[in-house]
Amino acid sequence: MPPRYKRLVDNIFPEDPEDGLVKANMEKLTFYALSAPEKLDRIGAYLSERLSRDVARHRYGYVCIAMEALDQLLMACHCQSINLFVESFLTMVRKLLEADKPNLQILGTNSFVKFANIEEDTASYHRSYDFFISRFSEMCHSSYEDPDIRTKIRMAGIRGLQGVVRKTVNDELQANIWDPQHMDKIVPSLLFNLQQDQIPDRCAEGDKDGTVDLTERCLRELLGRAVYGNIKNAVKPVLMHLDNHSLWEGKSFAVRCFKIIMYSIQSQHSHLVIQQLLGHLDANSKSSATVRAGIVEVISEAAVIEASGSIGPTVLEVFNTLLKQLRLSVDYELGGGLPLYVIFSPCSYSVPQGSFAGTLPTYQRSEVMLFIMGKIPVPGMYPTLGSSNSGFEGSRMIQIMLLKSLLQVTVGFQTTNMLTALPSSFLDPLLSFTLMEDAEIRLLVLEILISLIDRHENQLKFSLRVLTDISVLKLKMDKCSRQDNLFMKKHSQRLYRHVYLACREENSEQQHFQSLFTLLGLICVELANEEVVVDLIRLALALQDLAVTEEALPVFNRCAVHALSAAYLNLISQLTTVPTFCQHVHEVIELRQKEFPFLLPEGVFKLEKVEKVEKVEGEFLFSQSKIAETLGGSGYNSDRLVTPYIPQITESNKTLNKQHRTSRDQQRKNSLRAGGGNKGELYLIQSHVLE
């Protein structure tokens, strides 16, 4: 007579397999296993023997019954002998997974997933899941002819991998699931299925079967369990998959992958992902332009998700890598390669830097701004970032891109101490760009200054026009702090000088004058004390004198400077709330509206062309003496008000002008040597020497 455990096992199988498991006998077998746990391994071995025989004889109904019995025993038994039983169980699962019948593969997977969700009471020292990782990965790539069955096999493979991860990821006794040999199978298998909704036919159908959703959940679960030492092994297969299948160029899938990664891993580890992306960008320095552009796009998206402040010491590494790639791209275009906008457009390049800096606290953002400024080629101050072959045109490209990066960094910049946040080492080279002939560079500098000074989101409220009541602007203002007073005491004359010089540029357009008005308005509401207000009024009157006397300026520019001066005096008079000052400004504006409308913003910027300007004098000009008299009666410094503003040219400014002239002359010589005599093709630096 066979042993009792064999009889109990035999009794759970009905004569007709369609009748299913004999539940009453299954309860007896379970009770026996719980009462005599030492017999559990023998029960498992005998069930395994029966299952192997039934598989060989194609008696698949009995195979299903055997697996159901194994599942129930696993759920019920948590004794010390469970390990030996599990070995028999895994042997049977392996047998099913090796079968060529899809239904058996899916059956084996379902049993394994149930097993993976069981928390075992005892440790296992000798169990291996290598086969299951390999087999489930193969199932994820199934190419079975019938599409419905193929989908079921792939989904079974995904759930199987999910089960392996759950079973092994936190078990120190198991083979490390994070080893490259395992990650190189698991991650590409998941990405392959995640990629299915990128295929045109699949896109039209949508994710009806849920494969993509299941894959994404599995990938998120895997990444969510990764600790510091495992991030590299988890991310590297993603990079390799995107390389091998040329998926950087499409961008959307690569971006999606790294969004999943960044949202799934623990936030304190996210800088490690950024480091790997930067390293991969370096490694692809000789790859096609579209590949590098795709990697930069992914970096920008990943940086947006980066948790605040978690980049830490890798900040400068980030910028160094991007700057290196920018230099290579400039050299590539100037060498006759693909246009730079395809490789690193200003947008695609500046976004990663701005994205990084946008997540940093103020003190680190200040460091980033100083770092970028130190890399911008300023003739005579900072060396050229590009190679010796890139020349002046290469320097100009880098200047524009880095200034756009700097603008992105300054968006939302908030500081209570402008003096420490914007030191001379930052402002001096920045303001030096207002001396350049290149209109695009000057406009970028103005936008950067506006972004830095605007701490109450007022910049969009300043439109270059004449308002009879500025209360409609709803400007937000605070009392000027001691730190702001110190900042203006140190830097105000430098700011005024560069505003004045910017108005002398012949190639300025409407946007330049709008930005100058916004900058002056922000200085008035953000940084102005009584002394600053007096100097700003003197500056506005000096601009009026410039428009009257500077006959070499184009007619449009002279009219625009008149309009700028008028609009600003109208603004500042209402901010001072001195009635007689407001009345004088209003009277001059009314007269201009009748006789010289092109000397006001509403006139000059609406006319297609101003042919000439008659000599403007007398009552059509704002009177410095009248303004000094009206404000003197309200406590302002009338002696200073009556003193005309003359830009102060410091020794450092004279030196910079000399360096700019030397650089300009050298550029002309180089151009002539190269056979390029067309002055219009050069972007020259204009030196301002005041008479």
UniProtKB/TrEMBL annotation:
Annotated GO biological process: protein localization to plasma membrane
Region (Disordered): 652-678
Family matches, as Pfam families: EFR3_ARM
One GO cellular component term: plasma membrane
InterPro entries per record: ARM-type_fold (IPR016024), EFR3-like_ARM (IPR049152), EFR3_Homologs (IPR051851)
PANTHER family named among the record's database cross-references: PROTEIN EFR3 HOMOLOG B (PTHR12444:SF4), PROTEIN EFR3 HOMOLOG CMP44E (PTHR12444)
Entry's family note: Belongs to the EFR3 family.
Official protein name in the record: EFR3 homolog Ba (S. cerevisiae)
